[in-house]
Each structure stands twice: as C-alpha cells, then as structure tokens.
Amino acid sequence: MNLKEYFKRLGCDYFDEQYKSYKIIDFDGKDVTIIGADCGTTILYARINGANRIIAYESDETKRKIWDMVCMRFLICENVEWRGEWRGEKITTPILIMDCEGCEEKLEKSMLDEVEQYCIAVHEWTGKKQILEEWFKNDIVTYVTPDQKEKIFCRTRK
To answer: If you placed Cys at 18, which of 33, 45, 60, 157 could pair as Cys (CB 3.0 to 4.6 Å)?
Structure first.
C-alpha cells in the first residue's frame, strides 16, 4: 500500500498534497515548525525529506492519536515535540509550515522575520485573507485546492 492509500484509510486523505505544496522547501537537516500537524502527513513528509527536529501544533486530539500510530509505524517519533493549539507563539525554527484551517488569522507579519523558508495556507474563510494575500503577493503559490478555497504561499529564501 502506498502512503496516499495508507493515510486515506486513516481518514487523512491528503498525503499527495504534500509533494505539490512543499516540494520547494529544503528540509535537509533543518528544524521545522508545523502548525496544523493533523495526523502526521506533513511531519512524515518533512522527515522523509531530511527534517531534523519538528515542533508540531495540532488542536484536534483525535488527529494526535492517529499520529501516535503513524509515528510508531514509520519509526519517526523521535525529535517531534507535540504542542496543542497554536495561539500565536513565536516561531523559533528556520522553516514554518502552516495549514491550520483558519488559525493563519493569528499570524503577524513580524513573526516571519526570522523564518528562512515557509509555506502558509490561506483559506477562503479567513478573516485576514486579503491582508495575508497582500503580504504574500511576491511569494510562490505552490498549490490551490480543487475547490479554490485554499492557496499555499511559499518563500524559500530571505
């Protein structure tokens, strides 16, 4: 069974979006913050691509329990620090991945000053959608969902 099928069976049917969304990020040997870690699809993708330590935020405890199975299955539990819901804490890693179904509203532009690479999902229903799209207008749009309700904006270098 491939990874897409594996995650689909777990109810996390978006592993294939990882390649489309984050392929331009150089994870090799770097620490990563993932806001909206879900059931671990992005964590696994980052680890496959060489990420070192990962700080993972996810507010849904059910998805966290699925992660426990995923990390044991793929032997990637080490170097992953789970935190609950992201409440606007400072990003302390060189890479940020954010796809948290609306929590991008808490993002302040200054929070990205020290981040070397990022990919941030902006959702149609986000109150700050126009502001965020203005901030990211010079970034690369790596993925747009089929329903056009989410865009992934990425920057790879300062």
So the answer is: 45
